[in-house]
């Protein structure tokens, strides 16, 4: 943090970014507009670069301001979490276990597992926070979550993991697409087709890219959608073809999304992650058992042919 830049400056900056105007920021902070403007001017002087461009009475963040906001948001989210913990301790509320999850698993697997978990009144209460796979690993590594659930990632020292479920990858087609007539989709079928790419950041698309290269096919990538459920929804809307698994497409198939087996076989693995030596009141082993049983049950119901792995 630049010398002299204080919490109040970052708070004013954050409020302006969130509200989109000094007027809105003043309302959020319960301050006067001149007071917010003064803090913003001081922040820019201390940073020694402009945070906002003034255009016809409006302000727009600079590229540096966007980067600063991304970093400061992490700080404030952490402070907000601490404030909530203090409130719970003050009120003697029951212990809460923090589960960091990718959005798809939070939507499709966690609800049933948490419902079963909370049948026992003695169990910890649950707080779910959603991140991309890298974000899940980050909060687990920083010990800001008791457990993380995400796509399988490279091993990280000090982090243990357990495979929850292995899903075969399925080709997702818009209703009425000519390829719906085929029983099995191959790479050659995708050559030249409008295609919705999955997350390269999380590695979902990377393996598929290698496959396309190996078979010398070139789908026409029209969208990259890191959220796998979002990619499926786009396919349902007719944007193009994409890939799903039985978990991610669970809520889309009843709405008309068409799934077909894809060969050669590709799989997505989902795992739970936690810090090895951390002791907690949270009964992690019992929750892992419920989580794994739930994921494998859902997969067996939605895609009986998927290779459910029992390895750790």
UniProtKB/TrEMBL annotation:
Biological processes, Gene Ontology terms: lysine biosynthetic process via diaminopimelate; positive regulation of gene expression
Keyword annotations from UniProtKB, A to Z: DNA-binding, Transcription, Transcription regulation
Gene3D superfamilies: Periplasmic binding protein-like II, Winged helix-like DNA-binding domain superfamily/Winged helix DNA-binding domain
Record bears the keyword Transcription regulation: yes
Top-rank taxon, per record: Bacteria
Record keyword Lipoprotein present: no
Residue ranges of every copy of the HTH lysR-type domain listed in the record: 5-62
GO molecular function: DNA-binding transcription factor activity; sequence-specific DNA binding
PROSITE patterns: HTH_LYSR (PS50931)
Family statement: Belongs to the LysR transcriptional regulatory family.
Protein's name according to its UniProt entry: DNA-binding transcriptional LysR family regulator
UniProt source species: Chelatococcus composti
């Amino acid at each position: 943090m630049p010398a002299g830049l204080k919490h109040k400056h970052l708070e004013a900056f954050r409020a302006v970014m969130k509200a989109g105007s000094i007027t809105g920021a003043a309302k959020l902070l319960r301050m006067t507009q001149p007071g917010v403007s003064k803090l913003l001017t001081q922040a820019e002087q201390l940073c020694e670069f402009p945070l906002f461009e003034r255009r016809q009475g409006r302000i727009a963040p600079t590229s540096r301001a966007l980067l600063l906001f991304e970093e400061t948001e992490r700080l404030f989210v952490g402070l907000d979490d601490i404030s909530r913990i203090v409130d719970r301790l003050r009120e003697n509320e029951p212990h809460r276990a923090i589960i960091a999850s990718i959005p798809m698993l939070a939507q499709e697997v966690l609800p049933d597992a948490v419902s079963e978990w909370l049948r026992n009144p003695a169990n910890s209460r649950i707080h779910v926070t959603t991140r991309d796979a890298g974000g899940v690993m980050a909060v687990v590594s920083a010990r800001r979550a008791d457990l993380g659930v995400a796509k399988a990632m490279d091993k990280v020292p000090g982090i243990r993991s357990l495979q929850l479920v292995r899903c075969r990858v399925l080709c997702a087609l818009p209703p009425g697409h000519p390829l719906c007539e085929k029983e099995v989709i191959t790479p050659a079928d995708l050559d030249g087709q409008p295609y919705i790419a999955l997350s390269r950041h999380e590695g979902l698309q990377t393996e598929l890219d290698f496959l396309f290269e190996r078979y010398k096919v070139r789908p026409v990538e029209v969208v990259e959608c890191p959220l796998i459920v979002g990619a499926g929804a786009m396919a349902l809307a007719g944007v193009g073809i994409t890939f799903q698994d039985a978990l991610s497409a669970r809520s889309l198939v009843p709405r008309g999304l068409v799934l077909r087996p894809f060969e050669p076989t590709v799989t997505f693995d989902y795992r739970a992650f936690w810090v090895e030596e951390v002791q907690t009141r949270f009964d992690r082993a019992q929750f892992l058992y419920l989580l794994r049983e739930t994921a494998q049950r859902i997969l067996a119901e939605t895609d009986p042919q998927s290779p459910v792995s029992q390895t750790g």
